[in-house]
Write a structure and sequence with these properties.
The complex is a heterodimer of chains A (about 250) and B (about 350). Chain A has about 250 residues and is mostly helical. Chain A has 9 helices and no strands. The longest helix of chain A has about 40 residues. About 5% of the residues of chain A have low confidence. Chain B is an alpha+beta fold. In chain B, strands 2-1-4-3 form a 4-stranded mixed sheet, covered by helices on one side. In chain B, strands 5-6 form a two-stranded antiparallel sheet. Chain B is elongated and about 80 Å long. Classes of the chains: A mainly alpha (about 250), B alpha+beta (about 350). Chain B: Pfam families: Steroid_dh, TECR_N.
Amino acid sequence: MAAAAATAATKGNGGGGGRAGAGEAGGARKKKGPGPLATAYLVIYNVVMTAGWLVIAVGLVRAYLAKGSYHSLYYSIEKPLKFFQTGALLEILHCAVGIVPSSVVLTSFQVMSRVFLIWAVTHSVKEVQSEDSVLLFVIAWTITEIIRYSFYTFSLLNHLPYLIKWARYTLFIVLYPMGVSGELLTIYAALPFVRQAGLYSISLPNKYNFSFDYYAFLILIMISYIPIFPQLYFHMIHQRRKILSHTEEHKKFE
Amino acid sequence: MDLNMSLVAREASPGLGLGLNGLPRITPTKTTKKPKKAVLFFEVEILDAKTREKLCFLDKVEPHATIAEIKNLFTKTHPQWYPARQSLRLDPKGKSLKDEDVLQKLPVGTTATLYFRDLGAQISWVTVFLTEYAGPLFIYLLFYFRVPFIYGHKYDFTSSRHTVVHLACICHSFHYIKRLLETLFVHRFSHGTMPLRNIFKNCTYYWGFAAWMAYYINHPLYTPPTYGAQQVKLALAIFVICQLGNFSIHMALRDLRPAGSKTRKIPYPTKNPFTWLFLLVSCPNYTYEVGSWIGFAIMTQCLPVALFSLVGFTQMTIWAKGKHRSYLKEFRDYPPLRMPIIPFLL
């Protein structure tokens, strides 16, 4: 879901070029983009993020070649993963300030869900870090983000190669389910350890008459994937039809 | 004056409702009333605001027909769109016209083009309020009486040994009974209806929070306030004062507006000291409401209550700011000292 949401909802990070995600009605094109200073900043931001996720990709490949197996690769890319995924919080700021035309709520939702998985699940429950499900969502996120940030970079520079646009609106078909599976399996793997340690949980009685069961909370999160993921997925499919066929028509007339 | 202008316009433009002999053409379609003299009629065409599709053409509309009457005519051809869910406007992206607006007073020619927007299924405010307030009243009591399947079976139908728990039940129940009675007998609503989906949203909010708060306050492992009876007494005083205040404001607002009307006036303090808060804020009813919940939170020393108060405060601040802005726009002489919800601050 964090994987799905990231691609689906953001129009974000600049981009006058292609139609980046969440429904803007076909007709009205508001050419009120960011000013030159903001554009420069956003280009730098998106380039840095592209580079960051490339570092993670390379790190994964190198670790795999060095170890000879695909197990427990998380440890070799833990730091850049945390750094660059957490850095995406800036995207909420971009929307809030207005230099990116996406909804603050939608962007917050997707970034927070990623950050939640990185910190509140994978980082907090050490025992899941060696699970293969972690690799599943890390790979899905890495490929998605490299494409997404380069998409924004090129869009800002008004020079979007069709390949990038195609990749962004096609690879999700495999990467979404892959990412969602990785995320769900990881949360599921974390459950017994959360229960055992009473992680992030408060029980009665206490002075403020409050309780929180992190175990139940994680289960609720897993259940929430059921309504949310199909919506995001089919939204992207719909976007794909709209955007890729639109370009096809333009190409015909060239 | 408008009628004369329309007359001139009519004579100047041939074929617009006038037959070859210059007399008004009789067209056998929708009319509102039979004319007594050769009264000028308007034609009203209603287009869909999004698709510009022509939905309805009304012939022979009286010049002093109101938007409400036009809405009724429109319903005849499109019965699924009852008047409450119609938004008619002069500009597809403009503001909705009011039901009381008179056709000939609008900036239109003798053929008026109105744009229609479907507001979606509507439900009356009274219905929504009654449902959303009855829920918490009932739900809280389920927890208070510890009906089975909430707490462990050994606690079924037991009673708390803490006085504050009984007091809290009385306060919470009083609050919602007051709200229900105000909905039935006090409030005068400007709009009859709101979108249907609001009832689901609102009930989830009120019922959900009521259950969450009630669960902890009535829990067998509930911990009474740290500062004991002192804390409870202070909190009760705050609660009662704010309930009286909130009620006083509701009565004052009701008296501003005669029954059945939709007039808006600047509220001012009355002889009732609780209304003197109008000197400092535009929406003292919200101020008192937040105060009540803060009182309740201190009384129960329960974090979910504090969170509920915070969420409520956030929402009421948004509403208060909106109301304050409307007042400022509508009344040039609006008292400058007033803030929306918190004196001097917010």
